[in-house]
Amino acid sequence: MFGVLYMKIGFVGLGLMGGSIASALKKEHDILAYDVRKDSLDYALENHIIDRAFTDPKSLLAETDILFICLYPRDCVSFVKKWNSYFKPDCLVIEISGIKSGIIRDVSLYVNGQFDMVFTHPIAGKEKSGVEYADKTIFLDQNFVIVPVASNQEKNLLLVENLARQMGFGNVVRIDSQVHDEIIAYTSQLAHVLALALIDSDDNQVTTSRFIGDSFRDLTRIAMINDDLWSELMIENKTALLDKIEIMQNELSRYKQLIADGDYEGLRKAMKKSKAARIAIEKDIKS
Fold first, then answer.
1. d(CA 77, CA 86)
2. What pTM does this model have?
3. Nearest Cα to Cα of residue 17 among 35, 30, 29
4. Cα atoms found within 13 Å of the Cα of residue 180, Cβ hemisphere only
5. At CA 161, angle to CA 80 and CA 173, rounded to 5?
6. Is residue 156 within 8 Å of 92, Cβ to Cβ?
7. DSSP 203
8. Alpha-carbon gap, residue 147 to 249, rounded angstroms
9. pLDDT per residue over 218-270, tens digit each?
């Protein structure tokens, strides 16, 4: 399927994303995994997410043709720094974190010429964390981003594209790291900041849960956040994110002024413009 032969694919880190990717690829490949938590490995074995578990990274790396590193950005850098000499020659290493410029800069110090490391971002997930929430269906028809670097071999970039298709992703694109981080600051990180701020805006004068509808549920679902991960992602990408927050603050001030002025026509005009932009995004998604 999608030009990917049966291979030994290793995973470092079996959280939500590592477990979901492993589950999505298991039917077609031999899935090996290492995690510092033995209970995560046991769960993954018992629920047929992986084929074999390893408690020693060296043993895993000795057998792995393709290695997914599914760790937080700083942990990924630390892992490559410590274990890079044990990677198999010509191993394809795939990194999946939600930021790119910083991790590419830092981890590239430890990428020797023996293996190729491809930086990617599977744009999918849940508000839950842990391998027990692994779900291969979260990738279906979603977006997968590849951020090439000069050292990448074209054959490996194509292999990663094919693996993404095999996982179920509908749209696979290549993009520059800085552009990626700027876009993600808007489409992902700003959305999380907004959800958190909305929750924190509750004046607690009533029992909020008795007065909410779908709009509140949809807007605030992602406030149920993995704080360890997202605090790292936001601070690592703070330049782009702070710029997007400032733009959002300006837009909120504009709406605030329209409402304060009682500007019915101005408010309607602003709403129509935003609605048209959202409809255009929806059409592009479906095209």
1. 15
2. 0.90
3. 35
4. 25
5. 100
6. yes
7. -
8. 30
9. 899 999 999 999 999 999 999 999 999 999 999 999 999 999 999 999 999 99
